[in-house]
Amino acid sequence: MIRTPLPITAYALASSLGPRTDDALRALKGSRRGLRAPPVDVPFETVTGTVPFALPELPDELKMHDSRTARLAFFGIEPMRAPVEAAVRRYGAERVALVLGTSTGGIDRTEDAHHRWWEAGQGAAPLPADYRYHEQHTFHSVVDLLGAHLGLRGPAYVVSTACSSSAKVFASARRLIELDVVDAALVGGVDALCHTTVRGFHGLGVMASEPCRPFGANRPGMNVGEAAAYLLLERRGEARAFFRGAGESSDAYHMSSPQPEGLGAQAAMRVALAEAGIDASEVDHVNAHGTGTRHNDSAEATALRALFAKEVPVVSTKAFTGHTLGACGGTEAILSLLCLEHGLVPAALGSNPADEGIDLTLPESVREQRLRYVISNAFAFGGNNCSLLFEAA
Amino acid sequence: MSASLPTVRLRGHAFWAPGFDSLEHFVAGEVDDSVKKPPLAFVPSRMRRATSLATRMAVECAHRAVHAAGFDLANTATVFGSQHGEIQIAVDQMVMMEDGEGQISPARFKNSVHNTAAGLFSITAENKGFTTALAGGDFTFALSLLEGLALLKAGDATHLVVVCTDEALPTPIEGFSSHRDVSIAVAFSVEGDAGPALGLPTGRSETTPVGAVPSYLESHAAAAAFRLIEAARAGAKGALALDERWQVVLS
């Protein structure tokens, strides 16, 4: 079924590449990574996509939601306030949905409260007085925070399917617009670095102690990152780009390893193409999921070559930002839109020489190139896949 | 698009909580002390290892709802709603950080994501289609229903199970909610003529009272699923308040 293109009228990214979207564009153009020391003290060496700026405190009326995730979410939303408020004036507060992806919520607050409680003798002391589980930790807390700040009264919820979370929100929001539930939706994702994710991926044996090299030979693994990424989808409006297709599929294979031939990934990409009514040969660039781990990159490379000619440039921008987990779908959607708007394909940092069996074009340097269609992939634990297709305005 | 939306009908349900193996036993208050764990007979033991009670309840209920409705496991879309997700594993991992070298168990970590149940369902059902995992605070079931029914009405699936699950909060955060371990699943399809038809959930009319639920379900997001199933079983028509904010019209 060919879907009606949806205008993306505004977007904003706060990430390890800098506080604002223009910083990310400069990093792409300059082939500059945003990988550095993690913000949490962990008993092993690693580098992470840590934001390179201090996260301001929340205003007094929202302090109840305080967490690293909430501060990043709040800081990142500032450039979106004006376009979202304009959408509220145009459609009404009930007609603007808020659908965000996150995999961490504000878990860092519970980590901190739990640590202090543990140090005090596991129950000999109460939890810290400023700790509020519902308002700070839960997935929904970030939606409550932003909904209150922006005055939104439409459907508001979190999609939390690990690393595909903030890709799937595009499909959810589009259905709400198509079915006339709302006229606009603020979508995207936010995840902040915390002990759970940094230590968890280290425990899985996939964390790199150096910058990641997606698809590269002898690649060392992944870098976890953090970001707040927001996009405004509207029924009508002045488009910076168009959302054209979303494919959602399951591997039905393994909880943490991809199906080796990338069959689920292929299915997701095929649906995204079908929804736009275009052929794979029309795609100009792929923003790959490309975590930098051995199995994920191998499966995705196989899937990509099943659909696309070798000449299509493939880049994993996780080499710039780290893997922003629940925020990566939104983050990489925005990086894809920057490529569409500014006519560029980033360098595939660290990807060359490619690993044996990786038969992809991984650009060694940034290219100026007019683009019309870009696919952005997001694949997650549980074999949960989502591919997004965007078209230049 | 709204003029030609397909009719969606409620086709079946499933319920599991410690002591209650079915909704009928739960409503009758017939506690069976032998009902301690979801059986998950269809899940190999190696895949059950390191999963939480929340995931086990959710996957058990999803499979049961598919069977109750007569659907095909491989062709049923699923929405797994949960307010708190894998909170037990999250806190277990925080304990691991305090012990020894502060390492997190990889087996626990890979089952720590909110979509663990969604992933385990897709694997055990050999289902390569749509699944998702949501959180919507107190309104988690209503919003999961909105996500799922939108999928059907937009033509992206024909058969659907919406599951709402939460386990009790673990120490030391148990004081933040008194809700208990419950999973409820509801099956829907765009085919067939049995079962009440449903519109998309909408903002609630203040004139519609929110129905009471058994005390076991108080403060649990699945209370809204219980209200929906009970209304359907009673043959109710018209607007049904799912919670304080959302309603759905049955016809």
Give a brief rundown of this model.
The complex is a heterodimer of chains A (393) and B (251). With 393 residues, chain A is α/β, with parallel strands linked by helices. Chain A is built from twelve helices and twelve strands.
Question: What's the shape of chain B?
Answer: globular
State the shape of chain A. Answer: globular
Whole-number radius of gyration of chain B?
18 Å
Give me the Rg of chain A, rounded: 20 Å
> From the helix content, strand content and strand pairing of chain A, which structural class follows?
alpha/beta
Strand order of the largest sheet of chain B: 3-2-4-5-1-6
How does the helix and strand content of chain B classify structurally?
alpha+beta
* Strand and helix order of chain B: EHHHEHHHEHEEEEHEE
How many beta strands in the DSSP annotation of chain A?
A: 12
- In spatial order, strands of the major sheet of chain A run 3-2-4-5-1-6-12-11-7-8
Mean pLDDT of chain B: 95
Distance between the termini of chain B: 20 Å
| Proportion of residues in extended strands of chain B | 15-25%
Largest sheet of chain B: 6 strands, mixed
Count of helix runs of chain B: 8
